[in-house]
Amino acid sequence: MKCLPKITRVILLLASLVGGGCVSEGQKNQISKFSAATSVVIDGSQHALALAQESELENQIDEVVQNEKELRPMFFTPLLDKDAIDARLEILDSLQLYADGLLALIKDDESAEIAEAAQELSDSASALVGRLSESQLSDKEKTILGQVVFGIGSTVVEAMRGAALRKTVSVVDTNIQIFVDLMQKDLGTYDKPTKQRTGLRAKIFTEYQSREATLSTAFKAAPTAEKKDKIVRNYISLLKQYEAVDGLISETHQSLGYFASTHTSLKESLDFWNVFGSFDALKDQVDTMAKHVKKIRDYQKSLKGDDK
Amino acid sequence: MSTSKMTAREVVIAKASQAAAIAYEVYDNAPSDMREITLKMARKAGKYVQVLVAKDFNARTEEYQTVSDNLDQAIEYLKKAKKNMEKVAEVIEVLAKIADTIMKIIEKWPFA
């Protein structure tokens, strides 16, 4: 009985230290939300970049036709040079890997391995105790020992998970905000009252206007109703195409804002003080601690034969 | 987005796009003898917008690369953290082996 308070204090200290690092279900949900937002942003951005490149090509074809230029390869150059497009595609790949890395970290692959190892330790310790005291541990004592080892192992893993998440998410958050700002600048904005556009929205709109003017001129000059009909159909198709591209850019711009705020919320929820901000999270942690301490006490009592 | 929140580069593009939009409006409403020249003017204004946007796009490339490098470091850290978590079970297994070894030593101990 003499050593019981000392061990209990050590275990309490250990549990309280690691308990603060546990990742709650709410935080795991936020990681899942962030992962879903990442997919939307990646799809939207990749699509917007591809459409911008296509639109540039269409515009160049239009220019060649209008100016009756001779065909030369240099007339058809992509909007973004190779480095520029690679940098954007690479960062989108990295974002996917980062989101996957977060999901892998919160996935509990370790519990089964710890349980197996705890069982092995419990068997070995039981044999050792038997050898030393010439009496085997009972099945109940062995089970409690296994549970205690499993509990401490799991708590340590949870603490490592929490620490890794806090450190990574905090560092990456600044980079996510920079990425979102860059990508939003790429996509651009539209201010209806002033007719001012920036980024891809400005570029695609002026391309659309140019092609619309070409069709309008052709319509006036078309000698037959059949040709006029064909031009009108092309015009409608162009309008639909423009609306779809502009709509996609606008939606992706908004998704980027949501994506950034999801990551910031995750960062804030992992912040040390916020871990205790929610009563439920605090209660869960206290319950976990209490459970482990009780198991250790029970085990000690059972070893000393005073569990009756 | 008001121009006060924009960078100087974005302001240039915003104003140029406004000029191009107005130039196309001028062309749309121009009398027939002025249509060709106003269309040329509008196309030119539009072309400048496209060139400015392309320049602005390429200017951001280096910043993307820096963010990408930082993300790659974070991904590596996450992988290492996951591997370290898997080592907890290994440590417990080692403890079990130590207990086994101690037992074997005791069994072979000459004074046991």
Could you characterize what this model shows?
The complex is a heterodimer of chains A (308) and B (112). Chain A has 308 residues and is mainly α. Chain A is 83% helix and 1% strand. Chain A has a two-stranded antiparallel ribbon with strand order 1-2. Helix content of chain B is 87%, strand content 0%. In chain B, α1 (8-28) packs antiparallel against α2.
Shape of chain B: rod-shaped
Helix content of chain A: over 70%
Pattern of helices and strands of chain B:
HHH
Taking the alpha carbons of the first and last residues of chain B, their distance comes to 85 Å
> Regarding quaternary structure, how should these chains be classified?
heterodimer
Count of individual beta strands of chain B: 0
Instruction: Please state the average pLDDT score of chain B.
Output: 87
Q: Which regions of chain B contain 5 or more consecutive residues with pLDDT less than 50? A: none
Radius of gyration over C-alpha positions of chain B, nearest whole angstrom: 35 Å
Main sheet properties of chain A: 2 strands, antiparallel
Low-pLDDT parts of chain A are 1-5, 7-12, 15-20, 273-279
Total beta strands of chain A:
2
**Largest sheet composition of chain B:** none
Write the layout of secondary structure elements.
The complex is a heterodimer of chains A (308) and B (112).
Chain A: H1 4-19, H2 25-66, H3 82-106, H4 110-133, H5 139-187, E1 190-191, E2 196-197, H6 199-221, H7 225-270, H8 272-275, H9 279-304
Antiparallel strand pairs in A: 1-2
Helix pairs in contact in A: 1-5, 1-9, 2-3, 2-6, 2-7, 4-5, 5-7, 5-9, 6-7
Chain B: H1 8-28, H2 32-59, H3 61-108
Helix pairs in contact in B: 1-2
Describe the structure in brief.
The complex is a heterodimer of chains A (308) and B (112). By secondary structure, chain A is mainly α. Chain A has helices spanning 4-19, 25-66, 82-106, 110-133, 139-187, 199-221, 225-270, 272-275, 279-304, and strands at 190-191, 196-197.
